[in-house]
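>> received
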Amino acid sequence: VGLRCVSSALFRSQGLRRNSQACICFEASGHCLEVSGALARDLRPDDNALAFRVRSGLDALLKEGCQAPDPETDPVAWSAGELRGLEALARTKNKALKAALRQADGKRVVLMLLTEDGTPIRKVCVQLRQGPPLAGVVVLLGDDRGLPAEEADAMATLAEKCGAEVQRVSLGGTTLLASHAIVILHHYLDEYIHRCRVPKPR
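>> returned
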């Protein structure tokens, strides 16, 4: 499931989404893996290849001797390494959300919580275009059971304390795979909020 979500969040035809980042949280063990489309190189939308890179990213945190080169002391090796753009951290979901929201550096950022009774995604996107420019959109997805109401409320409170706007969003009445929900979200964000320039096919 996590691999499909990373693939849906970062890949499009003709390359990676350089303005997107996927964060998979493993709440039971208290760590997460962040994959940055801006930094990662040579990622391919192939399950086996992607699984190897994700496994390597997790090993960098969990196993001795698997760490990436230090980007400050050895930037050349870090830049050429397969772990560039993949970072595993001892971080809970709450801390991961705080870190994602703070990347906006005080500028306008929105947290989208997917809920069955939320506002239709198209309407939310139209509303978001009315205010100041957005520095970022953070989307929180639950598991196959969705986000429990108490957890969604707690995440919304945390986001508001970080200065973020909170939008409860619905993608419709059909239950979707998380990876499919990500693709639909990208479609609406591309259409209404921001679309990066896509290179011409080679």
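>> Residues 141 and 148 are 11 Å apart (CA to CA).
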